[in-house]
Automatic annotation (TrEMBL):
Keywords: Acyltransferase, Transferase. InterPro entries: Acyl_CoA_acyltransferase, GNAT_dom, NH2A_AcTrfase. Residues 4-137 form the N-acetyltransferase domain. The lineage of its organism: Bacteria, Bacillati, Actinomycetota, Actinomycetes, Micrococcales. This is Amino-acid N-acetyltransferase. It comes from Agrococcus versicolor.
Length: 166
C-alpha cells in the first residue's frame, strides 16, 4: 500500500469526513454529527489521504488545561487494518503534546485499538471535583459524555472510558 499522508483537515474535506463517519454511525460505533457540527469543528480534525483520496479522519478536542479527547476516528473499509487509524491517532497525540496536554481521554467500543496505543480503561473520576464543576458548564456533548452525565447515557451505553498519559 502506498504511504498515507495525515494532514490538517480543511473545509473542503468535511463532506468526505461525514461520508467516512456515517457507516460507523449506522453500526452504532460513533455518534452522528451534523454537517454544520463538522464544519464548526474542522480545525480539530486531521484527515488521512491515500493517492489524493480522504480515507480516514479523527479529531482532538481540548477539554481542560491538561486534558484532551480523541474523537471520531474513522477509516474507509478498504484501508481498515492497514495502519491508517494508527497514523491518525499518532498525529493527534503529537498535536496534543504540542498543545501542552498531558492526558488524553476517549469513549470507545474499540478498546483493543486504543489499548495498543497505551490507553487504559478507567471507572473513577479523571478530573478533580473543582474541574468537574467547571466542565459541567460546557455545552459540548462530548464533555457530557466524558462526565458520564445521565442525559447522554442513551448514546454511550456499552462504551468504555479510556485515558492515556502522554
Amino acid at each position: 500500500m502506498p504511504s498515507v499522508v495525515v494532514r490538517q483537515a480543511r473545509t473542503t474535506d468535511v463532506r468526505a469526513m461525514r461520508d467516512l463517519i456515517e457507516p460507523y454511525v449506522q453500526r452504532r460505533i460513533l455518534l452522528g454529527k451534523e454537517l454544520v457540527t463538522l464544519f464548526e469543528a474542522v480545525q480539530e480534525f486531521v484527515v488521512a489521504e491515500l493517492d489524493g483520496r480522504v480515507v480516514g479522519c479523527g479529531a482532538l478536542h481540548v477539554m481542560w488545561e491538561d486534558l484532551g479527547e480523541i474523537r471520531t476516528i474513522a477509516v474507509t473499509d478498504d484501508v481498515h487494518g492497514a495502519g491508517v487509524g494508527h497514523a491518525i491517532l499518532d498525529a493527534l497525540e503529537e498535536r496534543a503534546a504540542g498543545l501542552g496536554l498531558s492526558r488524553l481521554f476517549c469513549l470507545t467500543f474499540e478498546t483493543a485499538f486504543f489499548g495498543r496505543h497505551g490507553f487504559d480503561a478507567v471507572a473513577d473520576e479523571v478530573v478533580p471535583p473543582e474541574v468537574f464543576q467547571q466542565l459541567l458548564r460546557s455545552h459540548d456533548d462530548g464533555i457530557a459524555e466524558f462526565l458520564d452525565l445521565a442525559h447522554v447515557k442513551q448514546n454511550t451505553l456499552g462504551n468504555t472510558r479510556m485515558v492515556k498519559r502522554l
